[in-house]
Design goal:
By secondary structure, the protein is of the alpha/beta class. It is built from 12 helices and 11 strands. Helix 5 links the parallel strand 5 and strand 6. The chain is globular. The termini are far apart.
Amino acid sequence: MIAFEDLIVRSGDVKQALSIALPVVALESTVLTHGLPRPQNLQLAHDMERAVREQGATPATIAFLDGSLHIGLSELELDRLANEKNAYKVGPRDFATVMTQLACGGTTVAGTMFAAKKANIKVFATGGIGGVHREMSFDISADLQALAMIPMIVVCAGAKAILDLPATLEYLETMSVPVIGYCTNEFPAFYSQGSGLPLSLRLDTPQDIAVFAKAHWNTGLQSAVLVANPIPASDAIPRSQMEPIIESASNEAKEKKIHGKELTPFLLQRISELTKGESMKANLSLLLNNARLAAQIAKALRAMEKRRLA
């Protein structure tokens, strides 16, 4: 049997950056395979990678191609994944399935975190984390378990607004996952800048976040540090406007008995239709905003590590 490490393919850029201790940012790939329609998915992938590079870090988009786990994708590989019709949505439980079937797939937040840990990447940018679903409180994303177990800085715009945000925050607290508000005192609501849910900690610079993360892990805790970065005000949608739309989409999902892996893609697509594309515009904006901040944090973390070695 082939060892898991032998199925990991690091791109030349990522391999070089890691070998000489340059900042690297992990990026998920379910946004390509399941999150956005073509051709917006491929354009976003290029834009996110460019946003990371413009801030002085190396992007590492993570995905499966033909059963191999790729840490960093070439332009041709991004194009192939964005147009893959039968791609799996790959969380940690699905790794063996995709590897044994020599399949392609986009990694979820949890899947990307697991892979990034194997590659020794400490910073990860995503859109919104998964959490506790409104429709069924026992439907809890594997993202939350990964955040509880994997030491990594995860930059997001909060949890996806389609979720039960108070319950999601309670779960994170129970699992000792610190949630930092970046330049905000409340938990963002994905499309909206605030949810009204207060956070216990606010930090206003990437350097402060890097220092906090190191202090957190130095205690011996192995949970992630979740950085909640609100969507830019210019692209935010008021929560009062979004809530009725989310409720309508959620009720539709219940009526159609949509659940499991199909639920989130259905809700996001339906919300995009109901907002006439405004929610998609907001989604793209927050993803790029998170990629930029993650790169800044990765740079601050590397600079701090180099000072300690000097």
